[in-house]
C-alpha cells in the first residue's frame, strides 16, 4: 500500500505559475495570511502536505479556524480579521 502514496503525491503536486504581493485586504488575503503564518504557501499546499480534504473554517466569516504546522503544533485563529493593514503587503498571492 505504501508504494501508492508517492504516485498520488506526484499527481497532486501542483506548483504555482507566478506570485505577487497583496495590495488591499480581502477575505482571500486574510486566509492566505493565516496559511503563510503557519508555514504554507496557501490552501493547496496545506492540503497536499497534511493530506486533508477540508480546512476547518469559522462558519460566520469563512476564515480559517485551525491549521496544523509542519511540526504538528496547531495554530488557532479568531473569527475576526487578524491580518492588519500594515501586514497586507507581506501576503504572497500565488497564481496557478
Q: How are the secondary structure elements laid out?
A:
Layout: H1 4-12, E1 18-21, H2 27-37, H3 43-50, E2 66-68, E3 74-76, E4 92-95
Antiparallel strand pairs: 1-4, 2-3
Q: In which range does the helix fraction lie?
A: 25-40%
Overall structural domain count: 1
Straight-line N-to-C gap: 31 Å
* Helix-strand makeup class: alpha+beta
Order of helices and strands: HEHHEEE
Total E-strand runs: 4
Low-confidence sequence ranges: 1-11
Protein name: MEIG1 protein
Family: Belongs to the MEIG1 family.
Pfam family, one: Meiosis_expr
Function: Essential for spermiogenesis.
Overview of the molecule:
- With 96 residues, the protein is α+β, with helices and mostly antiparallel strands.
- The chain has helices at residues 4-12, 27-37, 43-50; strands at 18-21, 66-68, 74-76, 92-95.
- The protein is globular.
- Mean pLDDT is 88; it is low at 1-11.
- The protein has one domain (18-95).
- A hairpin with a 5-residue loop joins strand 2 and strand 3.
- The N and C termini lie far apart (31 Å).
- The strands form two sheets. It has a two-stranded antiparallel ribbon with strand order 1-4.
- The chain is built from three helices and four strands.
- Helix content is 29%, strand content 15%.
- Belongs to the MEIG1 family.
- Essential for spermiogenesis.
- This is MEIG1 protein.
- InterPro entries: Meiosis-expressed_gene_1.
- It holds the Pfam family Meiosis_expr.
